[in-house]
Amino acid sequence: MHSKTPLAQTRRAAALVAALLVALATLPTVTFAADSPSRMTGVVNLNTADLEQLQLLPGVGEKRAAAILDLRKTKGSFKSVEELTEVKGVGDAMLERLRPHLAVKGKTTAKRL
């Protein structure tokens, strides 16, 4: 036989839930590059950008930037930004997120905010 009444158990459960919610509210927020708003301004020219400049693009780390450089070396200059989907891991959704920051002509003007 339980020594606590159902009301006492309910109050205890409610207190535990409240404590858990407070604890969760104090955890740091984690954002993922693909989900976070862009932290850059300007454009990256796919034909002239170096490894560091390519990494300014949201969701592009060192490996993906290197893959872009490898594709450029293998195939020559990009004729359009759509060719970026030939890089492993760059699909239509990522291309659409990157499109405002991409160019195939002109200077790379990208800067971190």
Strand order of the largest sheet: 1-4
Return the average pLDDT rounded to an integer.
85
Tally of individual helices: 4
Order of helices and strands: HEEHHHEE
Q: Could you tell me how far the N terminus lies from the C terminus, measured between alpha carbons in angstroms?
A: 63 Å
What would you say this structure looks like, in words?
The protein is elongated and about 80 Å long. The strands form two sheets. Strands 1-4 form a two-stranded antiparallel sheet. Strands 2-3 form a two-stranded parallel sheet. With 113 residues, it is mainly alpha-helical. About 7% of the residues have low confidence.
Give me some keywords for this one:
DNA polymerase, domain 1; single chain; two-stranded antiparallel sheet; elongated; mainly alpha; 113 residues
Write the layout of secondary structure elements.
Blueprint: H1 6-25, E1 40-41, E2 44-45, H2 51-54, H3 62-75, H4 92-98, E3 102-103, E4 111-112
